Amino acid sequence: MILYDFDLERPNTLEEASALLRDKGADARVLAGGTDLLPNMRVEVVRPATVVSLGAITPRDPVRETDGTVRIDALTRLATLEGSDLIRAACPMLAEAAHRVAGNQIRQMGTLGGNLCQETRCLYYNQKHDYQFKAPCYKRGGEVCYPYPNNDRDTCWSVYMSDTAPALIALGAEVEIVGPGGTRRQPVEQLFTGSGLTPHALGAGEILSAVLVPPAEPRFGWGYHKSSRRGGLEFGMAVMAVGLTLDGDGATCRGARMVIGAVREKPIRLTATEQAMTGAKLDEAKIAELAAAAAKEINPLPHHGFTKSYIRDNIKIHMRRVLSEATARARGTGTAENGGHHD
Ligand SMILES: Cc1cc2nc3c(=O)[nH]c(=O)nc-3n(C[C@H](O)[C@H](O)[C@H](O)COP(=O)(O)OP(=O)(O)OC[C@H]3O[C@@H](n4cnc5c(N)ncnc54)[C@H](O)[C@@H]3O)c2cc1C
Ligand code: SF4
Q1: What is the pLDDT of residue 316?
Q2: In this predicted structure, what is the pLDDT of residue 333?
Q3: pTM > 0.90: yes or no
Q4: Containing domain of residue 165, as a range?
Q5: Atom of ligand 2 nearest to the CA of 137
Q6: Backbone φ, ψ for residue 146 (5° rounding)
Q7: What is the pLDDT of residue 135?
Q8: Which residue, 111, 200, 201, 276, shows the most beta carbons closer than 10 Å to its own?
Q9: pLDDT value at position 133?
């Protein structure tokens, strides 16, 4: 499919890019690696008149700040993240999540900021519309929702597929955002609106500049799993990310963050199961109970051919393993090849 004509800008700084985006308004989009935006422009589900490329801006290497926070430039390629010694040592769940995205060619181009800001997906949306359907759906400004005909025009149940977002939320990470009003920081989970129509809470001219991962507490452990139809080059059916800390006894859960991605319009925190886990002794029986509770708490959208009950069953099975791995890592018995500790 041939791309339509558009204007291309190539600023030298994020501040210039932000000013350009603000001036051009809703008709402009920022381009990082282009692995999400360009396919979407090809099928014309988005049709910006101006593309503001960040290609002239070189990302800095990830660094550990004096308080232990790891600062990662939003323009960092996913391949850089998965191969970075610092990321693998300080936040191995993020290295693992980056490794799970698509295939190597896409990870060589795709950036962390682009991964977080990727569009939601729906089988009925990611199509050239004159190919399969006559009328565009609500998300394309039309009058219909194909999979959910009873939805009103303000409701779109397209699914947010980022593999890194659940990991970052489970790690308690923040994003730094550059915009016309200066720079601000907020938790990653506040980046999402929960609406499939406009999934990201970014204002006019706002661009992600960095991701900040806090240092882990003592006896921290993580678990991560991406279920998908095949092992690679495939979007998730469900992504599970857990970060937990244990008390000094090495058994009682002090606190946890459980996140499920690729099942709703944004990554979902399982706050009820997190609360049930806090203060509990994480033995095998309790972990099985918590995995079942997680599968019950989440309300997945059926998507890409997977039914709600199939996704729930999958979460119940894999969450048990994810929780066991997180607990083992927090106890110091996690395996080195899986990344060991978040130190
Ligand atoms: C075949 C295929 C398979 C894929 N599989 C996966 C997968 O398994 N998991 C997964 O998570 N993704 C997958 N993707 C989606 C995509 O490739 C990745 O999410 C990638 O990380 C996007 O990064 P990018 O830099 O290429 O983003 P771009 O395409 O450049 O941008 C994506 C969106 O984010 C916006 N954006 C980019 N950078 C910023 C920024 N710094 N601040 C604000 N907005 C920004 C753009 O305007 C655009 O709307 C796949 C894509 C393809 C084509
Ligand atoms: S769920 Fe959203 S993207 Fe999919 S057809 Fe309905 S309105 Fe369109």
Answers
A1: 98
A2: 83
A3: yes
A4: 65-117+159-213
A5: 8
A6: -70, -50
A7: 84
A8: 111
A9: 61
**β-sheet with 207-213: strand ranges across:** 63-64, 70-73, 207-213, 174-179, 182-187
Q: Residue 122 domain-assigned?
A: no
Distance from residue 197's CA to the centre of ligand 2 (Å): 8
Low-confidence ranges of the chain (pLDDT < 50): 336-343
Are 164 and 253 contained in the same domain?
no
Predicted pLDDT of residue 334:
67
So what's the pLDDT on residue 231? 85
Predicted local distance difference test score (pLDDT) of residue 92: 98
Pocket test for ligand 1, best of 13, 29, 36 (most atoms within 8 A of CB): 36
Q: Tokens for 25?
A: 């308004």
CATH (domain of 1): 3.30.43.10
Q: Classify residue 327: in a domain, yes or no.
A: yes
Q: Which of 40, 137, 150, 265 to mutate to test the pocket of ligand 2 (most atoms within 8 A of CB)?
A: 137
- Sorted by sequence, the CB contacts under 8 Å of residue 299 that are 6+ apart come out as 264, 308
Do 176 and 212 touch, CB atoms closer than 8 A? yes
Ligand 1 pocket check for 62: Cβ under 6 Å: no
Predicted local distance difference test score (pLDDT) of residue 119: 98
